[in-house]
């Protein structure tokens, strides 16, 4: 770390020492004992400007307090059938770990429909996974490997990406904004696989809009990405849609233990049981309110808005082209 970076870190530490309760309390849930690593994440997100990073972090802590994010892991989505329908339409799961101990999250971008519940339930589910990752999964991996592990890798499956993705842009922008503003720099690398032509076209126009540090994290892999991903993880940690060419994503697979999206997968079972247990503990203090956990949606950064508009524009271009089918899954591209 250079002198400028160290100076910025020292300045941010000094500023954070002046933050009072209850922000200090929620900050503990954010850093989980890894204060320096957490401050560095926010500094990276604000180009190592300590004052801007301080504002970003304090804004995030206020968001957590105002929306009771510290308690979100004691707010189960009930009944279980509702949560199962969310899992069937918001495809995300933990498939395993890289050889360095980084959690590998699989996301079915193309086949996620977000059509089984209100926006609030999907946002609640997303934040719960974020918080469980940061408070349980990452600390456990850090302890196992004897070193701080504070980031993950994500494998994004574009199988099934259609023009109907236009209907999801608003929700995806909300989720992306929540991550950018409150969970910055938590993803080490984004691996994009099973890429149809429609994604290739959007990526060409979106890529220049991304900040350089974000562009460096994105790797578009050929086909299902199996060979490339096996360089950083064992086969057991590969998402099911990367196991073989043409395997694709799915809402349900032959075996629930193989499909990391499913509520029957060990990760989701552990997460759901953890939330139920935390709910029982919390209920001894105050009654649990049923219903979705409403979170204030942040105003998306200008960059997010521009990217969303660009994607929408590109999808409309394809939609209006004569002779172009709704789904272009068959056309693949190699990684950039």
List its salient traits.
336 residues, Phosphatidylinositol Transfer Protein Sec14p, alpha/beta, Helicase, Ruva Protein, domain 3, 5 strands, globular, 5-stranded mixed sheet, 2 domains
The name of the CATH superfamily of the largest domain reads CRAL-TRIO lipid binding domain
The CATH architecture of the largest domain can be named as 3-Layer(aba) Sandwich
Spatial separation of the terminal alpha carbons: 30 Å
Going by helix content, strand content and strand pairing, the class is alpha/beta
Q: Which fold name is given in CATH as the topology of the largest domain?
A: Phosphatidylinositol Transfer Protein Sec14p
What is the string of helix and strand elements?
HHHHHEEHEHEHHEHHH
Roughly what is the average pLDDT, rounded to an integer? Answer: 86
Task: Count structural domains.
Answer: 2
Strand order of the largest sheet: 1-2-3-4-5
* Main beta sheet strand tally, sense and closure: 5 strands, mixed
Number of helices: 12
Quaternary class: single chain
Q: Which shape, going by the Cα principal axes?
A: globular
Task: Give helix % range.
Answer: 40-55%
Task: Tell me the number of strands.
Answer: 5
Low-confidence stretches: 322-336
**In CATH's first tier, which class of the largest domain applies?**
Alpha Beta
User: Beta-strand percentage?
Assistant: 5-15%
InterPro entries: CRAL-TRIO_dom (IPR001251), CRAL-TRIO_dom_sf (IPR036865), CRAL/TRIO_N_dom (IPR011074), CRAL/TRIO_N_dom_sf (IPR036273)
Protein name: CRAL-TRIO domain-containing protein
Pfam family, one: CRAL_TRIO
Organism: Arachis hypogaea (Peanut)
């Amino acid at each position: 770390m250079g002198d400028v970076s160290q100076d910025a870190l020292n300045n941010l530490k000094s500023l954070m020492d002046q933050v009072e309760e209850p922000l200090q309390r929620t900050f503990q849930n954010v850093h989980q004992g890894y204060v320096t690593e957490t401050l560095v994440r926010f500094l990276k997100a604000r180009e190592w400007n300590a004052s801007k990073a301080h504002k970003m972090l304090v804004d995030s802590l206020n968001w957590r307090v105002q929306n009771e994010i510290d308690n979100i892991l004691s707010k189960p989505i009930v009944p279980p059938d509702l949560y199962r329908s969310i899992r069937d339409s918001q495809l995300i799961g933990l498939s395993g770990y890289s050889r360095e101990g980084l959690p590998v999250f699989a996301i079915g971008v193309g086949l996620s429909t977000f059509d089984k519940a209100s926006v609030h339930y999907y946002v609640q589910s997303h934040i719960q996974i974020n918080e469980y990752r940061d408070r349980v999964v990452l600390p456990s991996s850090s302890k196992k490997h004897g070193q701080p592990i504070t980031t993950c890798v994500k494998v994004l499956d574009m199988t099934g990406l259609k023009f109907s993705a236009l209907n999801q842009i608003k929700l995806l922008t909300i989720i992306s904004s929540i991550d950018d503003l409150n969970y910055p720099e938590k993803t080490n690398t984004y691996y994009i696989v099973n890429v149809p032509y429609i994604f290739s076209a959007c990526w060409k126009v979106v890529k220049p809009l991304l900040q350089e540090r974000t562009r460096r994290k994105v790797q578009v892999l050929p086909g299902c990405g199996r060979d490339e991903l096996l360089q950083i993880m064992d086969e057991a940690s590969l998402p099911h849609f990367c196991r073989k060419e043409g395997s694709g994503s799915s809402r349900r697979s032959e075996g629930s233990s193989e499909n990391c999206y499913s509520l029957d997968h060990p990760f989701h079972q552990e997460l759901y049981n953890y939330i139920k247990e935390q709910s029982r503990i919390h209920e001894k203090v105050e009654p649990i309110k049923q219903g979705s956990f409403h979170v204030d949606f942040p105003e998306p950064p200008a960059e997010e808005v521009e990217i969303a508009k660009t994607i929408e524009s590109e999808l409309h271009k394809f939609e209006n082209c004569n002779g172009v089918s709704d789904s272009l899954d068959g056309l693949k591209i190699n990684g950039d």
